[in-house]
Amino acid sequence: MSSWETTALRLHGNVTADSTPSSLDKSLPLLPKRNAKARATTGVKEVSPEAKGYKTKGWKPLSLSTPILLAVIALTILLAVAVETLAQRSATQGGLALSPTLEDIPGYAKFSYLYVPTIIAVLYSLIWSWIDLDVKRMQPWFELSKDTGATGEGSLFLDYQYEFVALVPFKAAKSKHWPSFFAGTAMVVVFWALTPLQSAVLGTDVVSQTKAANIYTRSRLLPLSQQTPLFNPQILNTAYAIGWLNQSLPRFTTSQYALLPFYVNDTITPSQINSNWTAVTTRLSTELDCWPAEVGQDEGAPNSTFYFLNGQGCKGSMNFGATSKVSMQYIGFYGSPYSDYALNSPKCPPTKNSTHQFLAAWVKTTPVEGGLQPSYNFTAFYCQPQYYKQRVLATVLSSTFEPRFEALSPREILPTSEFNSTAFEFLLANGVEENIVVRDFPFNRVVEQTPRLNITNLTHPVSNMIGFAMAGHSIPLDDYSSFNTFTKALNDAHQYVFSAAISSLLMNETEGFNRTAMVEFHLTGVVSMDSSNDKDLAEEFQYDRFRLLYDHQAKSAKIAVEDIPFTTNESKEDTASKGYYEPVKPLVLRKGIGLLFIAVLIGAIVVLSYFKQQESILNGLHRPSENFEVLQLLENYIPTVFATLVEPLWVLLTRLLCVLQPFRDLWAGKAEPSHSIDATYTSIPPQLVFWRAIKSKHFILALVCSMAFLANLLAVGMGSLFNEAPATVLYPTTMRPAYAARFDNSSVYDLDLFLSQNLISTTQYSDHLYIASANFSSGTALPPWVTKDYYFQRHNFTSSNEGNPADTFSLEARGFGVNANCSAVPRFQIPVFKTAEEFPGGESLNKSFCRRQVFINNAARDIRENMANRTQGLSSAQFCHTLISGSGYTPCDKTLTLGWARTANAENINGTMHASMLICYPVFETAMFNVTIDRSGNVLSYNKTTKVEGELNYDESRDHTDRIFETYNRQWNTFNTLWQNDTVARDWFNYLIVVLNGSRSAIDPEQPVPNPEALRPIANEIYRRLYPIFLSLNEHLFVSNEKETPITVFRATKEIRIFMENASFIITMTVLALNTVVAMIFYSRSVAFVLPRQASRTLSFGRYVGLDGSVHLGIESDPHVVHSMQNATIRRFS
Predict the structure, then answer these.
(1) Residues facing 714 on adjacent strands
(2) Distance in angstroms (rounded) separating the CA atoms of residues 2 and 686
(3) CA distance 773 to 989
(4) Rounded to 5 degrees, what angle do the CA atoms 362, 363, 365 make?
(5) Domain ranges in the chain?
(6) What is the pLDDT of residues 423-454, one digit of tens each?
(7) What is the phi/psi pair of residue 236, to 5°?
(8) Which of 160, 208, 312, 978 is deepest in the core (most CB within 10 A)?
């Protein structure tokens, strides 16, 4: 028994009441198996006024003492302040423990938000459990201590501590027992609001951060005098990569405008994350002002020649062939040998506006039946570019430097003193600068776009800017007959070429600029639930009023009973006539409830095990909602509520068992007082009875008590059980190969003709070289299905595939590649050749002729004797050529020779020359791969699944691959070996060596002949990387007239999934399993139901005067037999 019970027992041991037999006596029901009635009549003793008004200092439990309550209040306030502080800090900083990604959140932070709140809530609930228990147990004494006393129903028969926690506040409020109401309400709040909400108060999310930063570098346009040389084909090469190859635009630019760049000190953000830089800068842009041209024909002019008037004194003219179909032209004011037309003429004199204007025309020729002259359908117009600058607040992403802006002022004209628009427009119209300067090979000629335009069937030649206008568009040619469509295409082309040009015209600004910027970035972090039964006794005594008083004369406490007369003539049923009673059976101790409880526990184990299995199979559980609050409710609040529902049940079981255990021992017989009537289990919260139970060898009670304690651990485990993290999820879908994995015979043999038939500005096919150049120099993405090592067999989706644009797909695909297999020829002195050497070509050339020395001699002779360009003095020369430069079957062309030479006197053809060489004998490679691609076919990763083979699985495979190597090698040929005394790369191969090697030493005449062993890895890489690009641009080489079988591929998508924390899962499953085992043990053992009413009630048993005249306390004899005696009368009770 508790200390307060002991004290109360001592007090009410001295409470007296005179008793005489009377018909008004209250009957006390009989004990089990009692045959005779025992009556006790309690007379009513009037309470004196002195006793009514006397006040004395009473006793109360420690938990209800002022220091403890003040400490709990202070702790509550501190917890509230801590939560509010975290909330304010989270709101101010955007979160707590901010990290680049979920995986980067520190371990202490994960533990703090997953476990600590629930642990604190559980410990806090233990304190409230102690207070709540004592308040509920003291409630009857509070009622008895009132001046007017209390009814038996409202005092002696109260047992709130054995009621289900959630129901106590309602019952207490109905009876106006406010201490129990407030304590019970606090427990309900702690159990089902505070504890669950503590587990759900913290979660993870992506938050935005903004901090001030310093700009350490700004850019501005170069002075006008320095801009002119920079308007060269390198800008158009960049534009070609942007328009046709999807290369990213330069930093701080979009396809519509360019910003003057600024760079901030970005050390304030973690290196792993992207940030947004915001600062004031200048936006540069261009727009076309276009108007229709007046079209006509001069008298006497050819029928296919037309003039175009701009309405401002300019008259341009063009001639259209009678056999052409659709022609599109872009004619600038100034002309050059690289353009077919120009406006500059006596009929279009230079003016302030005309020099900046161009003529664009779309012409469709339609034959007229029976006539010699076709009809012409025109869409022609003049345009004049306008250039603007504007002060803006710009924001750029630190990883891509892609900008967006807010205007701070109206745009204004960009003056010609700041931007050389004339040089820019000359470049657009002619493809080269006005004053050509020798540059690296790709930038020394007009960009060849004709192969890209082949599918359009445009009449050749095609103007340079027409190619840029059509880049990236797949609309029919006839749509360009629309004035709006054609002008928009040209306007778009002008804008993205302008953006590419601005990026090459910048210099750092060193003074007089605003150094203030803002850095915004996103971090992931923690962001801010009786021998009669009770019914009989209640009916007997519910209308009697009881008072706890202090007898001043006797110096002891006493209970006074005031009888209240009946208001009706009905007499109460005499319960003493029953003779026997039905022992009380608390609901929670019944086996039916036990079975239900065990079923719930097993169900929870099964459900959580199923969730864990699904998490493993699905790589995480699906999120049921995207709403943050709903997810917190489902992932944290509800699991914690379940755990806090389990705890009150174990607490109630422990409380009941704490009361019943002494009687159980008494029922068993031979019980020691320390283990029965002197047991003090009810003086402390049920969770802390464990050690007392172990000491008394009440092991079942100890187990039940431990479950009540472990229920708090269950709340911790379930409150942190579900957590979110990004996961890659796989979904099956189907794709079909676009062609067979073998080469088409006719396509292979006609490849030379196919590549050369549409070339205009060059004599070599260069598309794969442009792509490689953009990839090597700017990191432009390779074409779909291409990597640096292999080209993979393209597959198409069999149906529209929905999903995230960032989804990836994994499939089995064949890869095609090459090993350049280059061998080094060390430095040697080139001999003077005395006789000419002839190389038979075509079918007559035998493979046995293709010997190593033949290749060396061929290259050496060309280097020494080529007179195409002879410099003077110290010079260098580069050689890149096949043995035979013709088309058709030339087996020696499968080998490519690279050479580098030096001489001190280039003008002396017989002088001393030294050279080194690489001779490449390519070997075809193919294998099956597990390939991962994005939705566009760009290869993200690949793993070889079969061994590499040298040919495909059909008879003509080796012959086909050799013929493709011959054509591929001929695209490297430099037709004239040029001696040079500078460091300009004059062929594609050496330019790519310069880009990859980062050095021009291989072509520098002042450097010694390069070591071929040092160059071999770079040469192998260049040759190997361009071959897959070459194949991807010529898919017609593969057999495509067969319908391939669809294959199953797996779509991988990034989703936020719900995962079960391993530590929390182990804790939860362990506690639930222990709960289940203990519940089975507890309910499988029979509980001795022997008491007529709950021993938890006040005055349920106590001292009495027996027939022997002695004072007795409860049951003190064994066996428990009350001797049957007639007319026995109890004289006193206490």
Answers:
(1) none
(2) 12
(3) 10
(4) 160
(5) 3-202+536-724+1060-1129, 221-293+325-523, 818-929+939-1037
(6) 999 999 999 988 888 888 888 888 888 888 87
(7) -70, -30
(8) 160
